[in-house]
Design goal:
By secondary structure, this protein is an alpha/beta fold. The chain is built from 21 helices and 13 strands. The longest helix has 16 residues. InterPro entries: Bact_solute-bd_prot1, SBP.
Length: 430
């Protein structure tokens, strides 16, 4: 991956945002390493792993602060830009990691994590490698986006889970006739809408369509596959494929997945992290055997491979360049000596999460959740392409415009062509 849009330290967008007041812990002035993590899913297991590291290394124990997903994304940019980042920075790689590298906000950790890299699935690990140097390493579960469904509802209406677009449209009509929402959608968080646009674009035009956007090619957003993806999204909205109140549903509390578990919606397109949250929050539903999962439907005549996936290869750790030498030493020690230790890996699998490691087949087969975990593991290893979530893949200067304009597409307030025109304007200014 080539780095683009070089920034000057102190003048880039992160530096500007750093002028805002911080509302969370600082970068560790007392030379005590710290990390910010997210809520739910596998994250409590990550916090437990820090506790274990601290017991073994009391002089390098981490303080840990936990945030909801959307809150974290707001605060981390302020913290990094102001030089007050946590010692270990959670990220999604993509355009934001490039910005961190361009601004010298994170360390080159190539030598320290060479042993860890040998254990990782290459297609996942490669997301943290820029121009041959490692700036981020995966730190939790692989996270492809999956089509979840409630099998009981499908049985109730006598329908099959759709494998292609035509079948999906038929199923939408069947569930609407039965007064069941075909799909839940956390539109209030907006980013779940990206899952629809990414999968549709990939299935229609293959990975090349969006790769042109990431590469910054002029008018890349006007690719026919992207235009058609937006047209199909609006077709679904007009057919009432989604809960009509989707704009009020948010993902931080797993509300969209709960709609499926509670029988209010038949399907939801969401990340693999939803499974571990349902294990915790809806154990009876998971135990009932009614939670199903499938790939995103194929588009007849599309150029994309139906085995390709979109989502997040994982979350990644980077080490703050603004941390003290003592903090950096602790972070590098944790990454090189402790990350993905046997106990951590075991706890991940117990909670329904797949670590991005080679050779996990036997452990997965022994798990109570082997069906789901095996499905996720195989889909990642066998995917010909794993498209990083659009909001993380694009240049950070485009992220807000992307979310705002995609929301307008779903609301029917702009046309697909207007979406492309607006996004092309951000591309030229990126």
């Amino acid at each position: 991956m080539a780095m683009t849009n070089r920034l000057t330290r102190g003048t880039g967008p992160l530096a500007a945002v750093g002028l805002l007041a911080l509302t969370a812990c600082d970068g560790g002035d007392d030379n005590s390493p710290n990390a910010w993590v997210l809520n739910g899913g596998v994250w409590p297991v990550v916090e437990e792993d820090f506790d274990a590291w601290g017991e073994e290394n009391p002089d390098q124990a981490f303080s840990v602060d936990s945030f909801a997903n959307d809150v974290y994304k707001e605060r981390i940019r302020t913290a990094v830009g102001s030089g007050e980042a946590p010692t270990l920075i959670v990220g999604w790689t993509g355009g934001t990691l490039l910005e961190y590298i361009d601004g010298d906000y994170v360390l080159d950790i190539t030598d320290a994590v060479s042993g860890l890299q040998e254990r990782l699935i290459p297609s996942v690990a490669d997301n943290g490698i820029i121009d041959g140097a490692t700036y981020a390493v995966p730190m939790n579960n692989v996270q492809p986006v999956i089509l979840y469904f409630n099998q009981e509802l499908f049985d109730e209406v006598g329908a099959e889970v759709p494998s292609d677009w035509d079948e999906l449209l038929e199923v939408v009509e069947v569930f609407n006739d039965a007064d069941i929402y075909p799909f839940a959608l956390a539109g209030g968080s907006v980013w779940p809408m990206l899952m629809w646009s990414a999968y549709l674009t990939d299935r229609i035009g293959g990975p090349e369509a969006f790769e042109a956007v990431v590469a910054g090619e002029p008018d890349a957003w006007s690719h026919p596959a992207i235009i058609e993806a937006m047209e199909r999204i609006q077709q679904l909205v007009e057919m009432e494929a989604f809960d009509p109140n989707f704009a009020a549903v948010v993902a931080d509390q797993n509300e969209d997945a709960h709609m499926v578990a509670d029988g209010h919606a038949a399907m939801v397109l969401q990340g693999s992290w939803v499974y571990s949250r349902l294990l915790e929050e809806q154990p009876d539903f998971v135990a009932s055997g009614n939670l199903g999962f499938a790939p995103f439907p194929e588009i007849p005549g599309g150029q994309g491979d139906p085995a390709s996936v979109v989502g997040n290869p994982a979350n990644f750790w980077s080490v703050s360049a603004d941390a003290s030498e003592e903090e950096q030493d602790a972070a590098l020690g944790y990454l090189s000596e402790h990350l993905f230790n046997d106990e951590f890996v075991g706890r991940m699998i117990e909670t329904g999460n797949i670590p991005p490691l080679e050779g996990m087949d036997d452990q997965i087969a022994e798990s109570e959740d082997s069906e789901f975990l095996g499905y996720v593991y195989d889909s990642v290893r066998e995917a010909p392409n794993f498209q990083l979530s659009w909001d993380q893949a694009v240049d950070p200067s485009q992220e807000q415009a992307l979310l705002e304009n995609l929301d307008l597409v779903f609301q029917g307030n702009i046309s697909p062509e207007e979406f492309a025109e607006r996004m092309n304007e951000t591309q030229s200014g990126a």
